[in-house]
Design brief:
Layout: H1 3-17, E1 37-42, H2 58-74, E2 79-85, H3 101-104, H4 117-127, E3 131-136, E4 140-142, H5 154-157, E5 162-165, E6 168-171, H6 176-192, E7 197-200, H7 217-222, H8 232-254, E8 259-262, H9 286-290, H10 294-300, E9 305-306, H11 321-329, E10 336-337, E11 339-341, H12 359-370, E12 376-379, H13 392-400, E13 422-429, E14 432-438, E15 449-458, E16 471-475, E17 479-483, E18 493-502, E19 514-517
Helix pairs in contact: 2-4, 6-8
Length: 518
């Protein structure tokens, strides 16, 4: 036998021994859940994640969005949480607030040639089957008191609405005009843009600056709302309660399907301060330090999900990830609970050994999945997935996120399943096949198709859409490309089915099946 022919036959034998679609997964890793929130934060303040710097050409701004979404989709994410209003400004055209300085380098300057970054971001995220959560900071006006505000900034018209604290400027939470203004901003976003959620992080009242009191005594005297002089802390909490309640009502009035989520600091209260608190020793807490009674908002149904930032390691002596994950899971009150994870801490040079390898983060994923009441996590922040993470991205793709996931539904908003897609067809295209379908048509906005789930199995199997192993993609488009194998002898017959996912991720029954070789 000639050497080249022998080598070819050996090559063929090796390929035949490889199961179709087998990855490099660890066989000990269970199949990921079919329903799981897998979000990633995209911070624009100080150009943390996007754009990489102010003043980029528009084409470069758009390309960075596309590259960012492609990277996160490849890593298994199904939602982006994008900061569209970092400091009383906007990453979209607004009659209420000026353009953000982090876009073009100066507040109030629009991109040139003009485009709408928010609309572009939403369109590209949805195309990839990813939810878009619009992240806003309710109170921050200046990230640095030396920043220059555009002439159109509302604070120039109403300087009494804001005060300086530390090295930043904030809206005064006790001023009712501030609550109305922030609500108007959110209402405008929800009305004009196809966002899936409005998202706030942990910045309510500012984190304390040593030996500096909040300059809100005058506001307290002007708008006491019946609170006694020695109850200013309760008054501050009530200020934040009022804006959350007001925003919740406004969002649902405009579009009932738009979710409202909060990502608070990781500790509500320490047990030493409240019997219902966590067994932690945090120096700051939501309730006592930031005046954010997040548990009340969850319990009252003012918000749809909570995403506490548990940026600590398992076994931390003061704020143990394990303790806090279980504590938050006990306080869902029938709403969604996700966990914020700190991919930014992963560094082989970290002073803390636990953060030098991906094991800390993968152990956290396993822990989250093992705790009833927790439905996924989000990562801070996107840019860190573009750096060397000691193989963490590969572990996500090959093991922990190796199958796509559908964002958990929210039945308290809507639990009606949409109709299935119809008219599945397949067409030969360059390098493969294109499956297409027709989205179901309805006048019910709540149940309009948002995404489609694509399932596949071998010709001798039966597609069970409850089995996450058969789910191969979630897409916002009405078609799916299947790459053709390069040698005909390796092509096999596979069945495909498609389901509709509505705005709240309720899933239809599957379409008729389709079979072809690939």
């Amino acid at each position: 036998m000639k050497p080249c022919r022998h080598a070819f036959i050996l090559f063929i034998a090796v390929l035949l021994a490889i199961p179709a679609f087998a990855g490099n997964r660890n066989p000990e890793t269970p199949v990921p859940p079919k329903r799981e929130f897998r979000g990633v934060w995209v911070a624009t303040v100080a150009n943390i994640d996007w754009p990489s710097k102010p003043g980029l050409p528009v084409a470069k701004q758009k390309q960075e969005i596309i590259d960012l979404l492609n990277m996160n989709k490849r890593n298994g994410m199904n939602a982006v949480i994008v900061q569209i209003r970092p400091s009383a400004d906007a990453f979209y055209p607004s009659e209420l607030e000026p353009w953000s300085k982090y876009l073009e380098g100066k507040q109030g300057v629009a991109p040139k040639p003009f485009y709408d970054p928010l609309a572009f971001f939403i369109k590209e995220a949805h195309k990839r089957g990813m939810e878009f959560h619009a992240w806003l900071n309710p109170y921050r006006v200046k990230n640095d008191t030396l920043d220059t505000l555009a002439a159109s900034n509302i604070v120039n018209q109403h300087p009494d609405w804001a005060w300086n604290y530390g090295k930043k400027m904030y809206f005064d939470p006790g001023n009712p005009h501030v609550r109305d203004f922030v609500t108007a901003v959110v209402r405008d976003i929800v009305k004009r843009y196809d966002v899936d959620a409005i998202h706030f992080d942990d910045y309510f009242y500012p984190y304390r600056v040593a030996n500096q009191e909040f300059p809100d005594s005058t506001t307290f005297k002007k708008y006491p709302r019946g609170f006694a002089p020695d109850k200013i802390d309760d008054w501050r909490r009530d200020n934040v309660d009022l804006i959350i309640q007001q925003l919740s009502k406004a969002i649902k009035e405009v579009k009932p399907w738009v979710k409202f989520g909060i990502s608070p600091f990781g500790v509500w209260r320490n047990k030493k301060d409240d019997p219902d608190g966590s067994n932690t020793k945090a120096g700051t807490t939501n309730y006592d330090g930031l005046y954010a009674d997040i548990i009340k908002w969850q319990r009252e149904g003012w918000i749809d999900y909570t995403l506490p930032q548990l940026y600590w390691r398992i076994g931390h002596p003061l704020v143990d990830f394990d303790e806090l994950a279980h504590w938050w899971a006990r306080h869902t009150y029938g709403r969604s609970m996700y966990i914020g994870q700190a991919v930014y801490r992963l560094d082989k040079h970290s002073k803390i050994p636990d953060w030098r390898t991906p094991a800390e983060l993968t152990n956290q994923i396993k822990m989250i999945r093992s705790i009833p009441g927790l439905e996924g996590s989000a990562w801070f922040s996107s840019k860190h997935f573009a750096r060397h993470l000691e193989g963490f991205q590969k572990e996500l793709r090959d093991d922990y996120y190796r199958t796509p996931a559908i964002v958990p539904a929210m039945p308290w908003i809507d639990d009606k399943a949409p109709d299935a897609p119809s008219n599945l067809q397949v067409e030969k295209v360059k390098h493969g096949r294109e499956i297409t379908w027709k989205a179901p048509q309805t006048d019910d906005e709540m149940n309009k198709a948002r995404f489609f789930a694509v399932y596949r199995c071998g010709k001798n199997d039966s597609i069970d859409v409850s089995n996450p192993e058969y789910l191969i993609d979630v897409t916002g488009e009405d078609g799916y490309f299947v790459k053709r194998r390069f040698l005909h002898i390796f092509r096999k017959k596979y069945y495909y089915k498609v389901t509709t996912l509505d705005r709240l991720n309720n899933e239809s029954v599957p379409s008729e099946r389709m079979m072809f070789k690939q």
